[in-house]
Amino acid sequence: MKELLDISSFLGLPEQASAHAWELDYWTGLIHWLMLVLAVGWGAFFIYTMVRFRASKNPRANYAGTKGKLAKYQEGGVILAEVLLLGLFAIPNWAVWRNAPEMAQNPIHVNVVGEQFAWNFHYPGADGVFGKRDVNLVDTQTNPLGIDRSDPAAADDLVMLNEMHLPVDRDIVLHISSKDVIHSFSMNAHRVKQDAIPGLIIPVSFVPTQTGRFEISCAQLCGLSHYRMKAWVTIETGAEYEQWLIDAAEEAALYAS
After folding, report:
1. Which long-range contacts (CB under 8 A, 24 or more apart) does 107-110 make?
2. CA distance 97 to 52
3. Tens digits of pLDDT across the chain (257 residues)
4. Could you say which DSSP state residue 139 is in?
5. How many CB atoms lie within 10 A of CB 193?
6. How far is it, in rounded angstroms, from Cα 202 to Cα 105?
7. Which of 111, 113, 128, 107 is nearest to 172 (CA)?
8. For 106, left (φ over 0), alpha (ψ -120 to 50), or beta?
9. Is residue 157 within 8 Å of residue 123, measured between CB atoms?
10. Collapsing DSSP states into helix, strand and coil, what is residue 147?
11. 213 with 205: CB under 8 angstroms?
12. Rg of the chain on CA atoms, in Å
């Protein structure tokens, strides 16, 4: 049954690189089948009405309308179906995907900040604590996120431009925001997409299941150079990720000195 509803290959969807990707594709397939049934049903009804109420059979307009309770039953059925779809499927599934993983699961936290026309990735460093940020310290070249290096927690913070690294098979929490206009953070292979809205920090969680290098794009028209607002995420083993953090921190310290 699940294989029947999974029509990812027919829809041209990208590869599935996260734990929840297949489930989203499954629901996408289910919705497409439902829309097919509705399209065929309403199409048949439309043809029926054209034949049944054609001019030759109804030379005079009837302004009284139909009588009976069938229409009310139909309207009630539609309302009941929508309530069931929302209450039993949409809202429960949204609640599951919306909840961030528990601290006991030791998730990786990364701040993702969009700007025209790039993505900034802010890592908390070895201490696992993000340092303070101050808008007055923002410098496009040297400090794009305004990190306050006088804060002890910020001493080991790491900021990468258009390049993110994550470990495979680990819970990931991305805290998405924007410095200027509305952007949309999109990782198609991982089925992760969230608007980056100025003034809001919105968490998104997922578990990558495949190693490799995947594209990140902006899915919201954000200016003349929107087309080139893309980045890359490298999903690697836990050991490779830890080594990358060490190398990146050493490179950042060398650059700062």
Report:
1. 107/170, 107/171, 107/172, 107/173, 107/205, 108/166, 108/167, 108/170, 108/171, 108/172, 108/173, 109/173, 109/175, 110/164, 110/166, 110/172, 110/173, 110/174, 110/175
2. 48
3. 555 556 666 677 888 999 988 888 888 888 888 899 999 999 999 999 898 888 787 777 777 766 777 878 888 888 998 898 888 888 887 887 777 787 767 899 999 999 999 999 999 988 889 999 998 999 888 899 999 988 999 888 999 999 999 999 999 999 999 999 999 999 999 999 999 999 999 999 999 999 999 999 999 999 999 999 999 999 999 999 999 998 888 887 777 66
4. B
5. 14
6. 20
7. 107
8. left
9. yes
10. strand
11. no
12. 25
- CA quadruple 53, 58, 63, 67: dihedral sign: negative
Coil vs helix vs strand at 141:
coil
Sign, CA dihedral 209-193-191-120, equals negative
Distance (Å) of CA 39 to CA 9, 33, 36, 51: 21, 10, 5, 18
171: tokens are 């819970």
Q: Which two tokens stand for residue 28?
A: 């996408």
Q: Name the E strands within 20-125.
A: 108-115, 118-123
Burial classification of residue 91, based on how many CB atoms lie within 10 Å of its CB (0-12 exposed, 13-18 middle, 19 or more buried):
exposed
Token pair, residue 95, equals: 């609640």
Amino acid at 2: K
